[in-house]
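We store sequence, tokenised fold; for instance:
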Amino acid sequence: IDTNWWKGTSKGRTGLIPSNYVAEQAESIDNPLHEAAKRGNLSWLRECLDNRVGVNGLDKAGSTALYWACHGGHKDIVEMLFTQPNIELNQQNKLGDTALHAAAWKGYADIVQLLLEKGARTDLRNNEKKLAFDMATNAACASLLKKKQGTDAVRTLSNAEDYLDDEDSD
């Protein structure tokens, strides 16, 4: 009730802070679950889920929190998101990429494996007509995806190699 004191929480502890020690910020975060997933902040993610923030909500790019957790390599966040009922594994963003595309492109084989175990589709192509397999930037991810696809497809250039030309390879 006293305006000279504000309630604050840091590292799981809540207490009172003199109001002249902090500045009020009017900015808000449009997609807090996405931000928690991007940053790998498990406690913030739990807080969002406890407050029933929609797990399949899309940001401006059409991406889900699961996509951003996979893009950032935050396996603990991915696992926490999988505890939510009806989580959408195969949502494609505006570029056509799925969480599996992101994990493969960033080279997170442990997350690729987890997504595949949960039933992520390997046949979805992004706007560049690439499968997650085509986006794989390391052998471990490519091997997992190839095994799941059950094909003998020849691996194409990785996404990273697509952007290198002879001048850049020096």
Remarks:
- The first strand starts at residue 5 and ends at 10.
- The chain has nine helices and two strands.
- The chain has one domain: 31-162.
- Residues 151-170 have pLDDT under 50 and may be disordered.
